[in-house]
Design a protein that fits this description.
Length: 434
Amino acid sequence: MNTVKVIGAGLAGSEAAWQLAQRGVQVELIEMKPHKMTPAHHSEHFGELVCSNSLRGDRLENAVGLLKEELRRLSSLIISCADATRVEAGGCLAVDREGFAKLITEKVRSHPNITVTAREVTEVPEGPVIIATGPLTSDALSQAIGDYFGTGYLHFFDAAAPLVTAESIDMDLAWWQSRYDRGTPDYINCAMDREQYEAFIKELVAAEEAPVHGFEDKNVFEGCMPVEVMARRGFETLRYGPLKPVGLRDPKTGKEPYAVVQLRQDNAAKSVYNLVGFHTHLKFGEQKRVFSMIPALREAEFVRYGVMHQNTFLQSPKLLDKYYADRRDPLVAFAGQMTGVEGYVESAASGFLAAVAMAAKVQGRELPEFPRTTAIGALGLYISDESVEDFQPMNINFSIISPLEQRIRKKAEKNLAIANRSLAVIDELKARGV
């Protein structure tokens, strides 16, 4: 049996390597860290989270919650490691960033069917191979992939939020609560009145940005929009986005504040918190100056500032099939954000499906059929849909999953019915040994 090369040990690559190995396939996992690092990476561990530590909503009425449950039932490495390193975050699945990456690394390195090689790949190898080098693919390999397909990449920019120490947050001016009191009160809420919000917006809009080559507001992916870009869209924009006060009440007044900045636990020790939704590419000094205008963060100690980087992705509908494989050569596949799936869980799902399909190919078995009624299948069908005119990165959402035959008025009930239908299909696939 051929050894399958997996290039890149991020979420998609680690998931792909694991699923291949679990199916008895020999895997060479090639990762350029620590031989070569990108500006956004700080650790030599696999599956490093360079943006938020949240894998987003965990309820089945939420599309990403459904995707997580599908992967969980199919023995996903990424989801099992996330569950094992979970930290409190209300209705979201958030993880201890370092513990999560360490656990993925330990499991992958200890698998008898996986050999790890530390080097940079600069050419597209012959198959069987899954390329999962992510949005921060090295310049050399990025050029090689462009040459391989004979077409240009698309690109966009995303950003990571800053982190502050828990002990530096003024809890006399903040309180614990989850929005709408869902789950346990896991978020630290920092209120602003109208005057404070106005002053904050004024300085945020005027703050000096770090130079990012080729940056334009229109190239920013909406799901990772820098807070200063949102502020430029209008005075009230942030109050309807990351600073929305809806579902929160200040215990001192019993009323809904004018604006609220939420902080979410970033590590198991509860010593570090991230500013939810505060992706940014402001200069570090400007981040300290402007974000310290938030009353509860006036003395905040920043242990990491936000960073901005370019993400690159393929024109997948023209190039890839529903298994994330090259339409011309099914033994050359891609996975992760470079395919146009957006988000941690979506990246893991693409790695899962690419690997399950690749294992079937090299073992001479029938390819598994993940229909559009499942979130995993819907993502693969979205990125391979040749009718898409203006292809852009996509988070999982119910609009790309097959609708129900019957009409259900209430959105939550409808979404739950879609989720239950999907999970029944997943259970059937698992029973057949997918």
